Amino acid sequence: MERKIVLITGASSGIGEGCARKFASQGWNLILNARHIEKLEALKAELEQKYGILVYVAPFDVRDRKAAAEVLNELPAKWKAIDVLVNNAGLVIGVDKEFEGNLDEWDIVIDTNIKGLLALTRLVVPGMVERGRGHIINIGSIAGEAAYPGGSVYCATKAAVKALSDGLRIDLVDTPLRVTNVKPGMVETNFTVVRYRGDKAAADDFYKGIRALSGDDVAETVYFAASAPAHIQIAEVLLMPTYQATGTISYKKR
Ligand code: 8X3
């Protein structure tokens, strides 16, 4: 059976890991990217055994576009025809005010969320255009809809993901390729621990009183877009917990 291939960045945890599990369960072969190889190797062993699919481990930091190019250019022939690119790798560090935060941390956020996504798009999409087949699914955020306190740089990167998704959709309009921007609200993953610079208690407190989405919940939406009939382009999806209304308004039972 000819299996489809999905490349997922930031696949070692959270939404990326959820996507790996979902696509694997549907019989897709996976190219899994993250910075650290150990978690990817463990996922590979688990998912290959469980679903009889194949996993190619692609360890690099999406900020390092030379490393990304090396790994992707060296893909064995049978792995080159990527059907879906899930640009998921992303983070935020800190909840500082725009005039007080750490510029070095913001470099990491901007370089990952914007420039890393762009580098992967630039590396993978030309092959999709050549093959006349492909789908780019960017993980945006409710944070891209409007700025919120302590989030201006992160919100700006996710607004950029929206512009990059819309721009790519325009640039590909005369091709069969599709572009989707999936914009989650509150998702309970390690993302928030990183946001609070490793303070697990602060992260746990953030989710107290509300049932947040899981990485697996978001993966369902990603897969829905990826598996839609070829003539349907899910351009954007904004999804959030039932008790959340906007990036700043949610109801937490305390
Ligand atoms: C992160 C979701 O709600 O913290 O993309 O902005 S939120």
Q: How many helices in DSSP terms?
A: 8
Mean pLDDT: 97
Low-confidence spans: none
For CATH, the homologous superfamily is named as NAD(P)-binding Rossmann-like Domain
Which percent range fits the helix content? 40-55%
| Element string (H = helix, E = strand) | EHEHEHEHEHEHHHE
What is the percentage of strand-forming residues? 5-15%
* Order of adjacent strands in the largest pleated sheet: 3-2-1-4-5-6-7
- CA radius of gyration is 18 Å
Assembly of the depicted chains: single chain
Identify the CATH architecture. Answer: 3-Layer(aba) Sandwich
How many beta-strand segments? 7
**Terminus-to-terminus distance:** 51 Å
For the record, the CATH class is Alpha Beta
Globally, the shape reads globular
Number of domain modules: 1
What characterizes the major β-sheet? 7 strands, parallel
Short description:
The chain has 254 residues and is an alpha/beta fold. The protein has eight helices and seven strands. The protein has one domain (5-239): NAD(P)-binding Rossmann-like Domain (Rossmann fold).
